Each structure stands twice: as C-alpha cells, then as structure tokens.
Amino acid sequence: MTLISRKIMRKENVRRMSSRKRNINGSIRPRPSAEDVRYYDLTLELGTDPISGKRKRIYFKADTTDRQEAENMLVIKKAEYLQGEIIEPSRKTVGQFLEEYMRDYVRVHSSPATVRDYRGVIERYLEPEFGHIKLQELTKARVQQVYNGWRVKSNKSDNPLKATTVQHINRVFKAALNVAVELGYIKENPTRKVKIGKDIVSDHVDVYTTEEIKELQKAVKGTDMELPVALLFDCILRRGELLALRYSDIDFDKNTVTVQYTWAETEGNQPVLKDCKTESSYRKMVVSDYTMRLLHRQKAIYKRNKMKYGKDFCNSDRVICKENGEPILPKSFTRKWARTLKKYGLRHIKLHGTRHSAISLLLSEGVPIQMVQQRAGHQDPKITLSVYSHVARDKQTLVAEKLNDLLFSAVNE
To answer: For residues 336-366, b (16+ Cβ closer than 10 Å) or e, as one string?
Structure first.
C-alpha cells in the first residue's frame, strides 16, 4: 500500500471515529502562570498516530484572561475539528509533498510522458520557488506573487514566461494541491482563481509555402529523410506517431496507413511505445502512390539490413529506424530535422510545423475541414480552425471576389 493510500485510509478512519465519538479530549492552561494570567493555551488531544505511535495534539492560543471565554473557545475548536474544519498541523514542506505526490500518485496513475512533464515542471519551476515553504503556510498571495514575477522574468533566464507556460505550471501545481486537500494536509487550494493574464496572440503561424515544401522534397530526394518528409506531410503525423509507425500498421494492398501508437519520451528520457493520447488520434488513411513507393522501398531496405546484421539486428518493425533496426529517439530525430534544413539551406521551421504546413495547404486548396481534422487526428474541427484560422483570413479576398462575380456583377452592368 502506498503512503498516499495509507493517508487516505487514516483520514477516513478519523472521520468515522469522529462521527461516533461526539467528544474529544481537550485542556486549557493559563499563561505564563495561574497567578499572572495573560492568555490561555488550548490543546486538543487527538489520540495516537497509528503509524508513528506519537501522540497527536493541536494547539491554539486564546487571547483572553477570562477562563470561561477560554473554555468556550475550546468547545468551539472541538466542534470545528469534528466537522473537519480544522487541519492537523504539519511541518511538511511543499517540496516534500510534491515528491510524495510524484511517487505515490503521478507515477502510479499517469502515462510516462505525463510523468516526465510533471517532473520537469516541478524541478524547473515549483521546487525552486515553493519547495522550502511549509505546505500549510503556502498562501494564494505568495503563489500570485511568484506567477507575477515569472511574467516579468523567468527564474531560469532573463526572459519572461509566456502566459501559456505559467498556465501549464499552474495546472500541474493545482492538480498536486487538490490531492493535498483530499488528504487533509491543507484546507483549501491556494492556486484557485489566481490571475495569470493572456499573451498577445500573434496571427502568424510558421509554415512552409507550397513552393518551400516542394523545395524540401527535392532536397531530400534519395536520402534517408525522403520517406520521413513524405509521411509527415502526407499523413500529417506528429513526431511520436512517425517514429512509432510499424510495417504492421501498413496495408500495402490497400495503400493505407493506420496510426495507433506514439513513441513518447519518459521521465528518464527512455521512450516507450504507447497508445495514442485520444480516440481521434487513432486513424486510418489512404496515402499517395508516391509515399507507398517509398514505403515499399524502405521495407526492402529493412529486410536487407536484417540479413546484414543477423542476430545483432533489432527487429523493431519500425518504418523509421536506425540501420540496425533500433528505434530513433524523438529528440535525436528533431536534431536531424534541424541539420537537414541547415545542410540544404532551407528556412528553419519546427518539426511540428510540418503539420501546420500540411493542414494549411489542404485548407487553402479547399479540402473540407472535417476531412483535414480527421487526417490530422484533431479531436474537434474547432481545434483545426482555431490553430489554422490564418488560412481562412488569407482567403477572404478570394471569397469577396467570388461573391462579386456571382451576385453583384449584374448590378454594375
């Protein structure tokens, strides 16, 4: 049983015991002495911790010299505790809790890619800024102050963090602190309703023009990048989908490619083959004759290399792989993409920009949005439209011209 599971059980046990036991022990003590009373110490006795064996107490201070008022306050504190309104004090820091959260929750219930993402956010941003603070002393004001500071200057560089980056950090932090609330470590989540603001949205999306795509295809013709480039544009693949593609995913008789896996990096930078993240990411598509010819050629090369390397060959069944059959690391392929563009003097765009470019091309050529959305593996056509709306804007003049020719030209005759 994990530590978090034990904590949940302890919390439920306390609640059940509280519902049965209407009274808990408590005491008051005059301070600094009975002869010179300036205030009272209040103590709630909560029994013994079943794990550590230590006595559990909660202390309060009553700023009064009247013993009856102190007694009344003790009764109120007992009622608040029984109703779950008082949190047991803890010296646990934010850093200690985040480590517990990663170990007992994220690594157990999340995908390798999510684990890697959360670990990166915690190590890069949350731990340096919040790790030393006691969990129960973390306030919304402190969270807001740090977030505001990041929008001016990152803790890792002189540049400000984008609002989208801070929003992602907050999603990770909020998810962790929601668990802290559930476990009874804190009463409320201090990340709720913090203000982050918005970035100035640029209309520009970095894509290749049709001419640049043709220039790229011409440059890589006959190289080991010809097939990856064809697949990226033909099938509108993500990097992980490209590197996860297997020969068993290809129907050479029907000219179809099925996307059902992604090659995802993990916390330790060792990729794993995992199912696509959404149902819409699973897709089967008919591909061009050009791409199919390249796939036939690559399969023959794969078989030839298998005979060449013999027992040293890694029979990964991957379409895009090393000569010895080993899968390619995602980051290694990204670097290879950058080297290819530099080698042939082509304008640099991000590898993911090939998806933008392919979708922009299809939309500009009048392919229905639903078909583009399905081929790209977007869950909703609104995603396609929101990301690639610049294409629609580019066509506004064309729409106006067509309306003029169809409807309004006769008015001017």
So the answer is: ebeebbeeeeeeebebebbbbbbbbbbbbee
37 forms beta bridges with 32
* DSSP secondary structure string for all residues of 65-116: S-HHHHHHHHHHHHHHHHTT-SPPP---BHHHHHHHHIIIIIHHHS-HHHHH
What pTM was estimated for this model as a whole?
Answer: 0.63
The C-alpha R_g of the chain, in whole angstroms, comes to: 31
Q: For residue 373, which of 365, 364, 232, 363 has the smallest C-alpha distance?
A: 363
Residue 77 φ then ψ, to 5°: -65, -35
Residues 6+ apart with CB under 8 A from 377: 236, 238, 241, 259, 276, 278, 280, 281, 282, 283
| Contact between 318 and 306 (Cβ < 8 Å) | no
Q: Phi/psi class of residue 314: alpha, beta or left (left: φ > 0; alpha: ψ in -120 to 50)?
A: beta
How many Å separate Cα 49 from the centre of its chain?
Answer: 36
pLDDT digits (tens, 9 = 90+) for 118-159: 999 999 999 999 999 999 999 999 999 999 999 999 988 888
